[in-house]
Amino acid sequence: MKIADFIGNTRLVHLLTRGKLPPSTLFAGPDGVGKRTLALLLAARADCRESGGSDVCGTCRSCQKALQTVVAPASRDENVALSSIIQDHPDIVLVRPGLLDPAKEKRRRKPPFSIGIDTIRLLDTEAHYRPFESRHRFFVVDEAEKMTTEAANSLLKTLEEPPSTTSIILVTAFPQQLLPTIRSRCQKFVFLPLSRAEIAQHLTNTTSLENCQLRACFSNGSVGKALELDLETVLGERDEMLTLLEAWVTRPRFQTIFERCEKEPLRTKLRKKIGSMSFLDSLLTLCHDVYYLQVDTSKRVVNEDQIDRLRRISDGLTLEALRDLISGVVEAQQDIKRNVNPRMCFETLWLKTS
Amino acid sequence: MDLTIRKEDLLRELQYVQGVVERKTTVPILSNLLFETAGNSLVITATDLDVTLRCGCRANIKVSGAATLSARKLFDIVRLLPDSEIHFKAATSDWINLTCERSRFKVAGLSKENFPDVPSVEGKTVTLPAGPLRYMITRSIYAITQEESRYTLNGALLIVNPGTITLVTTDGHRLVLISHNCEISGIEGETRVLVPKKTLVELSKLAADDVLTIEFGNTENHLFFKVGERLLVSRILTGQFPNYELVIPRENHRELVVGTLQIGDALKRAAVMADEQSRAVRFNITENQIEISAASSDFGEAKETLAAKYSSEPMDIGFNAQYLLDFLQHADSEEVVFSLRDKETQGLLKPKGLEDYDVYYVVMPMKI
Checking CA distances to A46, which of A24, A198, B61, B263 falls within 20 to 30 Å? Predict the structure, then answer.
């Protein structure tokens, strides 16, 4: 993979490749838009021996090693997948939530969800060495918001003023969860969600998946999500919610909801927190779509394939009713997060609308 | 790759490289050794990125090539083999067949492409005497900080001048400066580099008795030491080593001369009663006598009196007993000189009558 092949955020990529990176940077933006990939590619580019800093050549020894790190850690061998430090290239280090020494620790406990102080201390020490075989050292901290407070604090000093041959790139989807002291020490670059066309194009070019256009619609601008999407389940849930919404519009009574909730698949799925949340997600997307139709911005509609049915629903609902419904769904989601009975939340949200 | 090698030759080199091999598994390839053929010798490389060691040993090479093999497994195998010729032969995709008399092994390797490139060593080298360098390392390494977060103190400052070699180590509470006067060829001006602790350890192992000289050179990112056939490459620590010259007190006019063994023993006994955290002992110095005392609120107190040569006015000063003992253990002289000023100024300790080396030990006093 080369930087030239990177999809989306073209202006940002242009900006980042134009000159030298600042010593401490923060890549913020939604999951699955390629923040980590770009960080690692930029590192590979800086250490590439052939291309003279224009892009990665992909063939020199340095690039070959560096590009191994770009492959998603989860798809690699077990020890690497659990490890909190991945270092295929001696001067390019990927730090992420995981175990410091998976070969020894994995039997004892589950992999931690945070980046601990041990890992960051190791990074700190390593950062003060000169490069091993290249010009520059890079430390990419993925999911940086998962650093524990102690770990984050121990990074501050190095982050403030890394040695001249070291760059640190923090990658996060939730920059607001980082300590303010971390944020203020980094130059922030914000990644935007990708357009549907970009995602669809990327999927068609690089994978053999079907329904690329539809996947792009449901991806929220994230390539990662588009790739992982279980289209069948999503579409199933979507259709279930669409039918429910149609029934509600024709007969807005509690009876309508109750009847459907008594039947499968809602009956079992609504017992669980996760199941009900994904139904509510689909419902929310549908409500947003109806809203977009009502305010004549139909190009933002996600469920493009069902646009006719959505139009009919849109005709049967007033803007006020739609507003109530949307706020009802959001409230229900929040309540479920706080462990209120999911089915009760799901049923009562309709009562608030009528 | 197809070659035969004598077991004892291989084992000797493997023992050297074992110390360097990475024990953590963050980079799996680093637990392997890189084997390459060059002329009629087998070159073995081990690295943990901090320190890289490259050894060569004579081998009968039929087909040249390269491979990586697990350092631990290979060491275990070779150690137990009979004293005979070992035959290495590359099989398909990174596997190596190893035969020795009636033992046969098939060992899995990793792709040699992933092994870090050994930094190229070029440029001028200077020749350092091996014996004095080893002496200086062992007499100063104990003062290197144990705190990993104090990056620039995690090694020794090596200063090479045409007439002297100097090594400085410190942990912020005490400092060792040891220098040796000798003619050093091939150097103009001064070279100052920070040598990481692990490199010092490996270097003192390599500079064993039969080695006379060490070739030393540095590039932008690495230091290298050629010890006979072996090459030790080390990364350079970045950062500023403290200005040690400011730390060495110049106006300590009160001199105390005392027997190394006597004060060492007295300190060890007194330290039993010292506070376990601070290890503080109090020196009460009067004419030709020192009283060392320690007190702990939980356990009690100790007092030691011993004779010393001292003629200035009486004074009190506190020290960390462990810091003094560290120095006394490595003093190599019958008497040591304490140069003091007052109870707030750092003390300067020197072994008395050491001819070949200049040793300065600076230790901060404690408030008691």
Answer: A198
